[in-house]
Amino acid sequence: MTTTNEQPGETDANAQEGPDSPADRVSLFSAAKERLLLFFSDRFTANVSEFFAERQPLVWVMALVIGIAAAYAAILFRLAIRFFQLPWLQTMDKATTAAAMQLPWWVILLAPATGGLIVGFILLRFQRGRRPHNVADVIEAVAIGKCRISARDGFLSALISALSLGTGASAGREGPVVHLGATIASQLEQRFDLAPGAQRTLLGCGVSAAVAASFNVPIAGVLFAHEVILRHYALRAFVPITISSVVATIIARVHLGNFPAFIVPEYYIASLWEFPAFALLGLTSAAVAIAFQFAIIGADRAATATPIPVWLKPAVGGLCVGAIALSFPQVLGVGYDTTDAALNSQLGLLIMLALLLAKTAATALTLGFRMGGGVFSPSLYLGAMTGGAFGLIAESIFPALASGEGLYAILGMGAVAAAVLGAPISTTLIVFELTGGYQMTIALLLTVSISNGLTQAVHGVSYFHWLLNNRGLFLHEGPHQHIVHSVRVRDMMTPLEAEEEATKPEEGPYLQPAHTLRHALRVFDETGQEWLPVVDAQSEDLIGWVRHFDAIDAYNKALVAAHVEEHR
């Protein structure tokens, strides 16, 4: 008989203390809880540390300050336009057409020319590049200019544009305000040593605030900054840009009132059978947008080829605008009163078709001959005329189905502006917020998309990117194009060692510190060299070396950084 030394109950006790015992389960649960808490603690600490390391609280505060400053700049710019129109129109009201109709013909003819003479003097004596700066310069500053916009260029361009529009030049006020808002943002952010991504975000803050305050469109201001200026929708940039837009809108509403820029009746789509007509309107709007851009391009080239002194060109352009205004005073200035009349079905078919041609010519002459102003307001104007005329024709053909020229004018306004600016999303939101009309959402999206797509098919780029292409900057082709322009040899060179002699190198290929990455890569490719000397631009002494591998490495790192910024 087998005997054991186990005591009664000992087997049960051992069983309870096995791997599945309650004590072990408690221990495993505690360990898992500690690991989970440690994981969330580490993640929380890492995210908060990164948030403060990137100085996001400072960026948010600066976004608030920029929003306030840009809003007041937009208000003052609007007042400056009215101040310059007072001497010849005898009124500071925005309804310039009615006032111009009461004036003698020689005042209408000479007022824009006189303003052009003053503009020409400012361009010749004070303005860099002898041209007013605009939205394209803001895009360039974000892409390759390290977000630096000269205060001199910014405020002089604002003065030139206010003077031009106040004396009757046919252009828009929003583009100059966008450049002014970006100038203010650039001057403020230069006082802090911020990361490049934060600098670009703050420039976007100035743009969003300017658009929001100028149009009373906070949502569209945010989207415009992302779509046109930053060209991405990074979440890290969304908060400060929204802060600026909201603050600017509040300030504008306090001083200018809380109402849309255009007061229109509430329109409804009469029938779903109208959508083929909306699609055809998109096609028509594309034709108008294409013709408008070709007219500006043609006027610019004509002004460049004409042997007229720079200081005299704005006066010649102003004289031509005045001549057009003798028959069509509706082309003078920003033209919001005429746009509003089209949206409210107050214009006839023939006058809208005539104004379509007259405004295109007047705006092309204004911008081509270097008077100040933007293209957004003229695009809205031309779109309203296009849509209104199209609506009247559609109503005459299908009286039981057409919704009326007012609704078509709203759709045309969005379609032409989106095609010219190359900003279909933000333009759609701008039209919504400008008119307060949300009933035609689907129709507007259809016309905007068709117009934008066909314009891109013909032009390939928006008006702003056409201006940049003329400067050799092809941003629409992707981030690699602006990277090879923005990275310089000085950013990737290896300085001379102490024992190396800083003498002029022998004959052969060499680089200078200011040369772009694109130039360096071309020289490497043409010569097959692995190392190239870097010489000083003035003394031509050797100051360093660049390795082919380092140039490629700098390019790859810049691409990765751009990708990270666009997706955070």
UniProtKB/TrEMBL annotation:
It comes from the Bacteria. It holds the Pfam family Voltage_CLC. The chain crosses the membrane at residues 58-83, 103-124, 237-256, 276-298, 310-328, 348-368, 380-401, 407-432. The keyword Membrane applies. Residues 502-566 form the CBS domain. One of its GO terms (cellular component) is chloride channel complex. This is CIC family chloride channel protein. It comes from Dichotomicrobium thermohalophilum. The lineage of its organism: Bacteria, Pseudomonadati, Pseudomonadota, Alphaproteobacteria, Hyphomicrobiales.
